[in-house]
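Format notes (please read before filing issues)

Several people have asked whether sequences and structure tokens are stored in separate files. They are not. Every record keeps both together, in the order shown below: the sequence lines, then the token lines. Line labels are part of the format and must not be stripped during preprocessing.
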Amino acid sequence: MNNRILTVILLLMTSCSDIRQPDDLYEKMADWRNLPQSHIEPLPRFMEVQRYRYSNLGMRSPFVPPMVMIGDERVTGNAVSEPNHSRPKEALELYNYSALSMVGSLAKGDRIWALIDDGNGRIHRVSTGNYLGRNFGKIIGIDNIELDVLEIVPDGKRGWVSRPRTLVITE
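Then the structure lines:
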């Protein structure tokens, strides 16, 4: 068995020892080298594009489901049923939540109202149970310096989640 392997190896080595120089390859390469050399055009200049700085890095990504912070724990919003689309809209539901600001509060007995600026210079008086913002935000609590709202927003999976928000009084 060893003799057969040794013979095969010797045959392979002797067959490789008779390698002729590939003259046709050298001739072809010489022909290519003798061709006139052409000028390579430089790469075109492209206009420099102005960089865009994304300034909303601290905000929630629109590709991530809404999260609620409760203490130090992150919790996704509570799943809720679809909001009532047939309910008549209130005046402050025509404005984005970010355009609204709380500018004061009124109290009479046990009842308290918040004064909301709609961003156009109009002041609206609201109480617990009223709606504001475009995300079906229902006012769930009011005190002298802040207003608690519970919004109903899409969860991205054809469902709805509740998201608490707070509107703090501005000076």
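For reference, the curators noted about this record: DSSP finds two helices and ten strands in the chain. The longest strand covers residues 146-154.
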